[in-house]
Design goal:
Elements lengths: L1 H32 L2 H13 L4 H6 L3 H50 L17 H9 L2 H11 L8 H8 L1 H4 L7 H4 L2 E8 L7 E8 L9 E9 L14 E6 L13 E9 L6 E9 L21 H21 L3 H6 L50
Antiparallel strand pairs: 1-2, 2-3, 3-4, 5-6
Length: 383
């Protein structure tokens, strides 16, 4: 009997020991959790823990993950269908461009004084028509005197140049020595790629005879892609410009505004004599627009500055195509320009201060003065 009791004690000791150990841990945990510093540290850690979508996906059962992968396969197929949709949209753009063109041709004739609009074509009722009528009655004498001068005005002077001056994105590119050249700009056209050809569009800048270059047309072609990236198909959001190609400008002697001549002194190492040499270096000009940075075809990435320049170039090309050319008259008058300065400020005493917001310094935007003031033509060669 004694042996049996020893055996039972031996078998119960580990259980009892485990129970005691568990009780001690619970007591220790209670003591720790009652410590304010420990609680604060734990709360801070919980606050900094962000449950990301990827971490949530990792917690899902394998069967659910398998179904998610199937959804991704469907999404890739959707992206390819979307790419086809945009290809058809490009075909529609080409179709409707042909319908717009007769109107744009007439616009060119009115701008350049090649034709005069009829009374019906020039009839336009403005919002301020009554005010203008009253003002006109007071200026009859002046109007009579001005009629003789009006007959000598051809078309709409400086139409496209005024648009360049009005639009910040373009005026930033224009230098003072570019202005006399842009005053010879007679028309800007958009041409879409032909059916069956890679997706692209070209901008044609038509110039009248001038003292700067012999080209009658300067061209810029933007190449586009409308297909999902094989390595990242989910990034597809429609056609994107992937490259652009300019043209060679046939500058007349001494008229190339994209370069400037500088003088540099060189000292001979041996004899110590000094000579002065002249060399041409790049110069800021809008006409650098026709000599864009080339996208590397060997897979090499561009440096950060080049990528920024190229992205800005693509944005300008898109802006010409989508906004400037279709709505030129509204950019000439300024009606299409979004001007932040037109927002009216509230009267004094009506300002509200948002709770939790620190009062920041107010900065006044300095207003900058504006800058100073058919036959198929031969196009310039593509670079």
């Amino acid at each position: 009997m004694a042996d049996n009791s020893k055996t039972e004690d031996a078998s119960s000791d580990p259980v009892e020991a485990a129970k005691n150990a568990g009780d001690k841990k619970e007591k220790l945990a209670d003591q720790v959790m009652q410590n304010p510093q420990v609680l604060a540290a734990l709360q801070e850690r919980l606050d900094n823990t962000v449950l990301t979508p990827s971490s949530y996906i990792e917690t899902l059962p394998k069967a659910v993950k398998r179904r998610i992968d199937a959804l991704k396969q469907l999404q890739v197929k959707c992206a390819h269908i979307e790419a086809k949709f945009y290809e058809e949209v490009h075909d529609l753009e080409r179709k409707y461009a042909a319908l717009y063109q007769p109107l744009f041709d007439k616009r060119r004739e009115f701008i350049n004084g090649e034709a005069e609009p009829t009374d019906a074509e020039s009839e336009w009722h403005s919002e301020n028509e009554e005010e203008e009528k009253l003002a006109g009655d007071l200026k009859n004498v002046v109007v009579i005197e001005e009629k003789a001068e009006e007959r000598n005005v051809k078309g709409i002077p400086d139409f496209w140049f005024t648009i360049f001056r009005n639009v910040d994105m373009l005026s930033e590119l224009v230098q003072e020595y570019d202005e006399p050249i842009l005053k010879h700009l007679q028309d800007i056209k958009v041409k879409f790629s032909e059916p069956g050809q890679p997706m692209s569009f070209s901008l044609e800048f038509h110039f009248g005879p001038n003292d700067y270059f012999s080209n009658s047309v300067l061209t810029k072609t933007y190449k586009m892609k409308s297909e999902p990236d094989k390595t990242d198909p989910f990034s597809f959001e429609g056609p994107e410009i992937v490259d652009c190609e300019g043209c060679t400008i046939d500058w007349k002697k001494g008229k190339n505004v994209t370069v400037k001549t500088i003088k540099k002194k060189q000292k001979h190492k041996g004899r110590g004599t000094v000579r002065t040499i002249t060399k041409q270096v790049p110069n800021d000009s809008f006409f650098n627009f026709f000599s864009p940075i080339k996208v590397s075809g060997d897979g090499e990435s561009l440096d950060e500055d080049s990528e920024f320049t190229l992205a800005a170039d693509f944005e300008i090309g898109h802006f010409f195509r989508e906004r400037i050319v279709p709505r030129a008259v509204l950019y000439f008058t300024g009606e299409a320009i979004e001007d932040d300065d037109n927002f009216e400020e509230g009267e004094e005493g009506e300002e509200e201060e948002l709770e939790g917001e620190e009062e920041g310094e107010e900065e006044e935007d300095a207003e900058s003065d504006p800058k100073k003031d058919s036959n198929q033509p031969a196009e310039c060669k593509q670079q």
